[in-house]
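Chapter review: from sequence to fold.
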Amino acid sequence: FGNYDLASALADLVDNSLKAKAHNIGVLCLFGDGSPEVRVVDDGHGMSLSELHAAMRPASQDPSEERSPDDLGRFGWGMKSASFSQCTKLTVITTRNGETSGAMWDLDTLDNWQMGVLSRSEIAILSADDFDGKDGTEIIWSNCDRLSENNTLSEPDFNAIVTHARNRLALVFHKYLSGQVRGKKLSMTLNGQTIDAYDPFYSQHNATQDLPPEILSVKGKKIKISPYILPHFSKLKSAEHDRLAGSEGFLKNQGFYVYRNHRLIISGTWFRLVKYGELAQLVRIGVDIPNSLDDLWKITVDKSDAQLPAILRDRLKQIITGIRRRASNVHRSKGGRISSGSKKIDVWVRYVHGGEINYHINREHPLVAALLEAEDVAGISKVTAALQVIEQCFPVEAFLQDAVDRPDDIHQAEAQVEKFRALLDAALPILLVGEDGDFGRLEKKLSKTEPFASNWKPVEEFLKEKGWVNASS
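The token string follows.
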């Protein structure tokens, strides 16, 4: 039945609802004291009795047939394979032009592969939705042995699976949920709660770099490449950063996001064109393909995977190289800048004397000054000696060589918010002592001291979390 989990199985049912022009889709995932039941109801155009019987047949569609450009299916097996990956009993109740019909497959009681046809009374008992003569379809999963792991799954674990499914649906169908596809937002709920679109490119944020798209032509069909560079963490609130990072972090989620008819197929892959890297963790590239190129991309039955056609590899690799270079600039621009006439306190100071240029660690930087204000004279001498060694052993030749040969790979600023917060956790208590515990003065000092000033948003949130100040900016 493919590599389905609950999220991908539900996504296949949503595909069918969208094909039926549904504008409202409701999903119910009920634990049922360890015997889960799942229902998906839509207000699409429904099916006639003959169409229902055809849809319930295995492999009801030839994948080589030309289909409507907005058809999200391929094999005609999606509803059945998705359902039986989670349950042994599939019931479908549908209304078309005022006529309601129902059919059922029960793998536990199969008799010569005879499909069960439901009577009116059986439909009335089984259906939780009153179509009231309106078109629509309800799919019911019962005897969910696979979903419940043979009734061994605990309710907290079940809820975690449902939460993951909710998040995944928000991502997979975000273009429909945001109204990008049909001019009207798709309404989708899970257990009565609205599923809001999750845009992996965060395209509406003013710090996101929305780069010019490129159109590639393959076999006379158009493929749209849409590159994005996400904002540096200093431009994001903690909640925004965490959602964009996902459970596996930015490093894992960089790369291509492949859409088939605006429905996400693959997320976070480089197709082995380049390696995952820290400097590219903000790069995400949308790839929109039509269903007419399914065979070329080798779309799997469960629509969870595809393979990059060889004809596109060289061009995409060229695109990646340019974008990764721009993304590295986002990190590098947050480094320890040497300001000229700036009121901010930098970490490094540039001196020009007698035609020579020297760089020194700023002794007036609050963290450095705190080390040099200790009562232990011997300790101060040691710190001073250490600073001088660092300054005099600055690797000038190596730096100059890298600046010539690999300028886009030079990276000094912190790219991960977790490490920056760790720096805050270590530095702020030291700085607070220097301000005699005055939180207001601490905040003012941080707002003009690097690297905190250039990364103010995470600093502000950190201070609020600690309750150290009521940050106002």
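Two observations follow directly from the output. The mean pLDDT is 85. DSSP finds 16 helices and 16 strands in the chain.
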